[in-house]
Amino acid sequence: MNEKINDTMNQTKAAFAEWKKVADEQWSRWEQLVTDMGRFQKQGVEHVGVAIDEVARAMKGTLEQASQIAEELRKAATEASKRARETVAAIGPTVPDPTKK
Fold first, then answer.
1. Which tens digit of pLDDT belongs to each residue from 4-48?
2. How far apart are CA 47 and CA 55, in angstroms?
């Protein structure tokens, strides 16, 4: 009977040792997965940060171009108004003065 109990105990110990080995391997894989997820998250955040910086830089460039175009349009409008005023002044009055006959 003692031999049977010892045999059962040995089988139980062997089964537990095998279970512990499998559990340890699984735990190791889990830790690696969590580590990898953290690394991927960090990389993702860095990539998004770079993308945001690039979009901001592009938007600033667009804003500067729009400002330059608006300035050029104001200058052109001012110059056109000045030339129109000078042209009208050079022509002089084209409507006859009704008081002079």
1. 888 889 899 999 999 999 999 999 999 999 999 999 999 999 999
2. 12
* Dihedral of the alpha carbons of 20, 21, 27, 31, in degrees to the nearest 10: 150
The C-alpha angle 9, 12, 18, rounded to 5 degrees, equals 140
- pTM for this one? 0.53
d(CA 101, CA 91): 21
Six-digit token string for 55: 């979009």
Reported residue count of the chain is 101
Amino acid at 6: N
Type of residue found at 59: M
Instruction: Name the CA dihedral angle for 55, 61, 67, 68, rounded to a multiple of 10 degrees.
Output: -160
